[in-house]
Inverse folding.
């Protein structure tokens, strides 16, 4: 963040004031831009090659695909000058791809585990002697129906914020996880229907789960 802010502010000064003090053939702005970019890219590569936590991988990929090429290099005060300088990406494509795969693997596992925990909690709630919650006057499981959908949607949205390609790849992966989760949900529900007919709130729980199906569709 400090490097990005410094680079943006300093290059703005070069573009507005310093550039016009030199003859065009000196390419003053290009020299400044390349030096700043090379230093920034070196630091980004150094970070990428070190051990990174998941949140750090996400942040670095956001800089590579989003903040750096869009927020910084498309800034109205710099865009025209930077378009003349071919700076390239902050990371080599192979290293960027490696980080993307790490992020996708981690996010896929995180969502899968989150859905599994959610289903476990829901099954536990079926066993309690409590009436299901009502949503807009209808029995429904807010935990299951809403939480699962939001988990998948928010995960997709975060990935899309990195880049369209990363978002599409995660969506492809999660579209495999959702049917697997729904099969587990169906099996658990069938088991409840068979074994819990004497449950005090048997019928409301059935209705709540049937109402969940609409959300999942």
């Amino acid at each position: 963040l400090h490097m990005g802010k410094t680079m943006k502010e300093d290059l703005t000064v070069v573009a507005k004031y310093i550039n016009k003090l030199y003859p065009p053939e000196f390419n003053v702005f290009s020299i400044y831009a390349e030096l700043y970019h090379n230093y920034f890219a070196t630091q980004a590569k150094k970070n990428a090659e070190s051990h990174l936590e998941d949140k750090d991988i996400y942040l670095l990929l956001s800089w590579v695909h989003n903040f750096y090429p869009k927020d910084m290099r498309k800034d109205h005060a710099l865009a025209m000058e930077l378009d003349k300088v071919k700076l390239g990406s902050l990371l080599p494509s192979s290293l960027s791809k490696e980080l993307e795969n790490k992020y996708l693997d981690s996010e896929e596992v995180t969502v899968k585990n989150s859905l599994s925990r959610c289903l476990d909690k829901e099954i536990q709630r079926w066993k309690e002697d409590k009436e299901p919650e009502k949503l807009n006057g209808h029995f429904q499981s807010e935990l299951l129906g809403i939480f699962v959908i939001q988990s998948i949607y928010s995960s997709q949205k975060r990935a899309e914020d990195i880049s369209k390609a990363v978002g599409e790849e995660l969506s492809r992966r999660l579209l495999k996880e959702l049917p697997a989760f729904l099969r587990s949900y169906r099996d658990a529900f069938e088991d409840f229907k068979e074994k819990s007919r004497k449950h005090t709130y048997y019928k409301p729980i059935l209705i709540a789960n049937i109402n969940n199906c609409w959300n999942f569709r």
